[in-house]
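User: Hand in any protein.

Assistant:
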Amino acid sequence: MVSRQLIEEILELMRLLRRSAHPVRRGEMTPEQYWLLRRLNRAGPLSVSELAARLGIGQSSATSACKRLERQGLLTRTRQRGDERVVLCTLTEQGHERIEKWSRLRREATGRYLECLDDAEQAQLEELLARVLSQAEAMNTTPIVAVDHLTRRFADKAAVDDVSFTIEPGEVFGLLGPNGAGKTKTIRILMTLIAPTSGTIRIGGFDVRRAGARLRRVLGYVPQNISTDGTLTARENLLIVAKLLGLGREEREQRIDDILGLLNLEEAADHLVRTYSGGMVRRLEVGQAILHRPRLLVLDEPTVGLDPTARQAIWHMLSDLKEESGMTILITTHYMEEADSYCGRVAVMNRGRIARIGRPEELKASIGRPDATLEDVFTAVTGDSMESGGSFRDLKQLGRRQRLG
């Protein structure tokens, strides 16, 4: 076991670094700006898109951070020769000096406290760090979602019947099936909204029945039903969610601005949501779900009732989000062409069970027709034609979305 003295030393070191050596804690800049400067110092000039990808943030967030740092004189932004669309960011002399100052403070603080440790405690510290790194590596190689023999019964009917599947980190996974197949029930169990009758769901290694409160912090959910308040503006809707998440004032203002930029809702941010089109409302709902930067984003038929242009805009936004942040996405949809184009793997549910699972091209090849589509697979597996409706409540919600559009 790590000694109490070692733990106290580590905690004291963390307090010192936060107080004296970390610019974010001292209020000099946001975390994005701090890590952006450090990345530029290590890698040299980088484009805004490269910075966004390396830091796991949206391109709009990276652009905003670069502009603020440029105003502080810490970096310069120039157009790349031969391609005017690419903006390169380069540290200025003042930027290098600022990074060197922070590095010196951290080295001095770390050195003072590590000198207090004897050989045995230093060995314990190294062992502790090795375990942490090993656990972090394991998190990136094991499935982020593992569903094992999941069953949910209502009286004598199994709405979800012995379902098992996994989702890998960074994957876009599609859950398909006719109405009543058990898709939404499976998602509601995954989101800790209802309990399973038997079986397990583990997310990031945690059982949803035992660690529901902890898991909700790393899950983002966009339900079928409209979840925004039409009497408020987009900014006000996001502000309410940010306060419920417990974000500090400065952090929530920054994240709301970043989300509005990512969603292309900046110009309409202060308009009432009831004046929005259906596509704009859906984008805002996605924004609410990713405000806390979840590891897993779950969307239940996010494009139902939208016109083709709005549907395409939603998918472009989701694709950009996955590419920039590496977020894992689980989605249900009735649009087979969407699942075929955007999902790495899909599972087709029917009568509460997984009838078929695999990559879209594998499923199409499995029915023995060279021109087969994913809809052909769906019909062959379920024996049903595609529907876009649902329960009476779903139809009412669909009508509301169509009126918004």
Observations:
- The CA atoms of residues 79 and 338 lie 36 Å apart.
